[in-house]
Amino acid sequence: MTERLYYQDTTCKTFTARIVERTTHDGHPAVVLDRTAFYPTGGGQPNDRGKLGDALVVDVIERDADGAVLHILNLPESTTAFGKVGDEVTGEIDWSRRFDLMQQHTGQHILSQAFIAAADAETVGFHLTDDTLTIDLDKKDLPPAAAPLPPGYPQWVKGVLGIERAEDLANQIVFEDRPVIARFVTAAELSQMLLRKPPQVETNIRIVEVEGFDWSPCGGTHVARTGQVGLIKIVKLDRRSDALRIEFCCGQRALIDYRHKHQIITQVAGTLSVGYGELDQAIDRIQAEAKDWRKKLSQAESRIMEYEIVELDATAQERELRLITRAWAERDPTHLRVMAKKLAAKPKTVVLLGSGGRQPMFVFARSSDLSLDLAPLVRRAIEQIGGKGGGGKPDFAQGGGPPATEDQVRAAVQSIGQSVAERQSN
């Protein structure tokens, strides 16, 4: 059985070990060592990375068959240069990544217990990657500010919302720099502990304790004191059908998140020529002005459209029926539909409109006193620009196709218009 050095000292960055087995995994060579500081994926925590000799360790897993720790190397499967059974190798952990994962994992223990204390919300899911950190709570909504504080809860957070209560309490635990103790316990010791969750194994139970605050079964790596976690900051809430997902970050990740958002706020405030304290008011004002301008623009477009309808109506080719055709380089489909319906309100009228661009659109309409079925005509127009589909009712049909130029759309509209004119002549 491999001696797991990370259980003895999570700050172990380099070590020496002997190869006890060589194997392969997913097309890469892998080795089992007699001792290792590399943490394998498990318990919600990603595996360590680093080097064994000159070879990169890209994955570390625990083999299901016997619990052996496999170190997967970034070498071709056929390589024989790495070493043989019995050889001594030097291992080096990617420490910056390991420490980041320890910060996040310990921060999760603290915040999960804080949510129990602040809002009686249990953690039912935990997800940690190199980029994100989330927990899922068993409640969709947390108590409002008026909810009574749990017994023994510090009064300095009275009146704060449930989310902020938990965040404040978690950071209070960080600032107190409490010891974080990880150890294997006996059944007698386990029975005396106020565990946040039950262990998933029956033997070799390891408890991670945030002194006087949280006791949780866990096989992962953690910092030695809560102060090393750094700031714990909730950055996003996602309400789901039966849970509330909390996205947060700790330590260096929290600093990077703050720095990025600060840069954005500084840039936006500078663009708007306002101070930080006035930014929300400035945005509210801009949104109100934009809403007013959108309303005015819509009214202006409606007036222009009425003039366009008159102009289009004047272009009608009058024989057995009134045929109106037009194509644009790009046009709002809503405008096409409005114009087509209004033009088709006159007797014996067929309207064939089209728009090009990235999302072409054909809109065909006719007056109610004609029997022409427009649905197959729309499909034919779409086929002419290389698309499929389209349809609707006999008196009103529409559909789009692949990107097309104004000339392509115009050619399709004119082709359909010619067939309609010929059909009525016959």
Task: Give the topology.
Layout lengths: L2 E2 H4 L5 E12 L2 E6 L1 E2 L13 E3 L2 E8 L6 E5 L14 E6 L1 H25 L3 E6 L4 E5 L24 H14 L4 E5 L2 H5 L14 E5 L3 E4 L14 E8 L4 E7 H22 L6 H36 L2 E2 L3 E7 L4 H11 L5 E7 L5 E6 L8 H10 L6 E3 L2 E5 L5 H20 L1
Parallel strand pairs: 1-4, 17-18
Antiparallel strand pairs: 2-3, 2-8, 3-7, 5-6, 5-8, 6-7, 9-10, 10-15, 11-12, 12-13, 14-15, 16-17, 18-19, 19-21, 20-21
Helix pairs in contact: 2-3, 6-7, 8-9
Biggest sheet: strand arrangement: 2-3-7-6-5-8
Q: Which bin fits the share of residues in helices?
A: 25-40%
Total discrete domains: 3
> Over all CA atoms, what is the radius of gyration?
34 Å
Question: How would you describe this structure in keywords?
Answer:
single chain, alpha+beta, Elongation Factor Tu (Ef-tu), domain 3, Threonyl-tRNA Synthetase, Chain A, domain 2, Diaminopimelate Epimerase, Chain A, domain 1, 3 domains, 6-stranded antiparallel beta barrel, 9 helices, 35% helix, elongated
Question: How would you sum up this structure, described in words?
Answer:
Residues 156-160 have low confidence and may be disordered. The protein is α+β, with helices and mostly antiparallel strands and 426 residues long. The chain is 35% helix and 27% strand. Helix 2 (95-119) packs across helix 3, helix 6 runs parallel beside helix 7 (333-343) and helix 8 packs across helix 9 (406-425). It folds into 3 domains: 3-93, Elongation Factor Tu (Ef-tu), domain 3; 99-260, Threonyl-trna Synthetase, Chain A, domain 2 (Threonyl-tRNA Synthetase, Chain A, domain 2); 315-425, Roll (Diaminopimelate Epimerase, Chain A, domain 1), CATH 3.10.310. It is built from 9 helices and 21 strands. It is elongated.
